[in-house]
Amino acid sequence: MTETAQVMRTALDLPDQFAGKLRTDDAAIDGAVGGQAALRTSLDGVQGSVGGQRVALASRSSGHATDLATSTSESLEREVETLLNESREIEDAVTEAAEALKIGQIENDRIREEIIREISNTMKAVAAARQTPPVPTGGQAAVRELMVSLQRKIGELTGQAADTSAETLGKLTGIAGKLGGSESTTASSAGGSTQVASSFNAQGSGSGGGGGSGGGGGYSGGAVTKPRLPVAIPPQPGTGVKINLPNGKTVEAPNETAAKAVRAALSQLGVPYVWGGTARGVGLDCSGLTMTSYGEAGLEIPRIAKTQTVGAEVPSIDQLLPGDLVVWSGHVAMVIGDGQMIEAGDPVQIGPIRTDNAGQQFIGFYRPTG
Amino acid sequence: MAEIDIDREASRVGEQMEQTAAQARERFAQVGSVTGRAESADGSIRVEVAPGGLLTDVRITHAALRAGTDAVAQQIVDLANRATRRAGDRMYRALSPVLGPGSDRQLASLGYEPLPDDEDEPRYPGAAR
């Protein structure tokens, strides 16, 4: 290999590695986007026909069995809508990711070309300098200076390439992080209709009682059914535990555990969102925040947002107390009081209590301490 | 994404290097010497340097020594500096046509810069001063 080729290979080694990381299979990306669009279209169709069937059912004779069929069908329709929204989210995320990669590739290519240009300019000057009389010594000092300068320039450009690569990968992590909030994307849509049928039969009289009913049965992607839990009753006067909120207000939690959980959650304000994150102070996702905060208070609650429907159910929004959880099919937040709740968006932040979340199915309010 | 063929790029650079070397050789032959020379007004001290400033020849007459050792030393330094700038000017004029218009910065980084035309200096090999 010539000296020049050697210099070039060494100089391009790192940028070539970055190019490899940024390499995209454009056909595969197109396929993924196309697949999502197709899924969305067929889900649209299902939603339409399910809705139609429900109307037809209800318009016939009413009766216990029909009511159950109707409400199960409602659940299915809601689940389909959730899948629809998630499909749209995925499609957008794939498109956004492809764009970020393209930009990264173009920038990395530009830097590689500039490296080659610098090498070319320097080696030409080296060739000329070597002809300085008396040959061969006349140009030595100049050649040395030229090569040192080239090394420095290549170092700068390689640094730029590293920055570009890091920035692109950072963007991709951000895009994935946004998706990660909708944890029920792992739910398979296959078997959805079968699931409906079995829950129809199993829930005969509808009082499934404690055990692992709703929480346990919701897994393989069918309708997210609410567990049958006792209703939360307001605490007796004088039994509450006070908490000071960041906005200066003082609120009362129903018990010491809830108060500790709220204080633990507040301590995580500003922590970045990390999909699957349970590292307090470092990176948390929505259910990670609530699970670890109750963990700090000494109460274990499940890992996944839609299964944090534990303890007692709070029957209405006006009965919410600090420590209560607001649960959706793919998100969870903790009430802190004064009409506010804390959640792991990016970063962990406080906002007014709400019941909508990116089109997800709202499940309910729960008090883990019962 | 563009695939970069290093061997192809390297051989293209190699070709350009050969062309440039040939042009440079020719140019240096035309220009003759690229050393820089300077001498004191009365010719009693003469200095010659290679491009970059390495002293290659120093001549002092007895007359020069009359001015005293400090004066002689200082004069040698001043003449060497002037000679170095002249060598740089010669290198610039030799190589700038070969490396093209975009090469000024590169040549300057080596100390090869053109002297303004009003500075009194010999341009042809063998000319006085």
From TrEMBL, chain A:
User: A GO molecular function for this record?
Assistant: cysteine-type peptidase activity
Q: Which residues fall in a compositionally biased region of kind Low complexity?
A: 183-199
Per UniProt, residues of the NlpC/P60 domain are 255-370
Q: Where, if anywhere, are coiled coils annotated? A: 73-100
Q: State the Pfam families in the record.
A: NLPC_P60
Where is the region Disordered? Answer: 183-242
Which of UniProt's keywords are assigned here? Coiled coil, Hydrolase, Protease, Thiol protease
What GO biological process, any one, is recorded here? proteolysis
Q: Which InterPro entries does the record associate with it?
A: NLP_P60_dom (IPR000064), Papain-like_cys_pep_sf (IPR038765), PG_Endopeptidase_C40 (IPR051794)
Asked if the keyword Protease belongs to this entry, the reply reads yes
For this chain, the family text in UniProt reads: Belongs to the peptidase C40 family.
What is this protein identified as? NlpC/P60 domain-containing protein
